[in-house]
From TrEMBL:
Residues 14-66 form the YiaAB two helix domain. It comes from Nocardia aurea. The chain crosses the membrane at residues 12-38, 44-64. Pfam families: YiaAB. It comes from the Bacteria. Keywords: Membrane, Transmembrane, Transmembrane helix. InterPro entries: YiaA-like, YiaAB. PANTHER family: INNER MEMBRANE PROTEIN YIAA, INNER MEMBRANE PROTEIN YIAA-RELATED. This is YiaA/YiaB family inner membrane protein.
Length: 95
């Protein structure tokens, strides 16, 4: 009998769906910007806006994940272990 994992796992299908959705939406935004009846500098501005939106979304997702991991019990236990090891370490002690 297997013990349920404390860490939630994501399936490969969910990861594939997220990657495909990201690719399709980024491609769609690029095609939409390309075919808009605008000058090239306006298209460039919209393109830079989309790229900035994508990078800031990745940053926000990482921050949310990091905050969630730091609040979890296992994260706090690992942090306490690391702090204990660092407090016990004496760099001037001969091995």
């Amino acid at each position: 009998m297997s013990t349920p994992s404390a860490q939630p796992t994501t399936t490969s299908a969910y990861i594939a769906q997220a990657a495909i959705a990201f690719g399709v939406s980024l491609f769609g935004a690029g095609v939409g910007i390309f075919y808009l009846p605008l000058d090239s500098w306006q298209r460039g501005f919209l393109g830079m806006t989309v790229l900035f939106l994508v990078t800031s979304t990745f940053t926000l997702a990482k921050v949310v994940r990091d905050r969630h991991e730091s609040a979890s019990l296992t994260g706090r236990i690992d942090q306490a272990r690391m702090e204990k090891l660092m407090a016990e370490h004496d760099p001037f002690k001969n091995p």
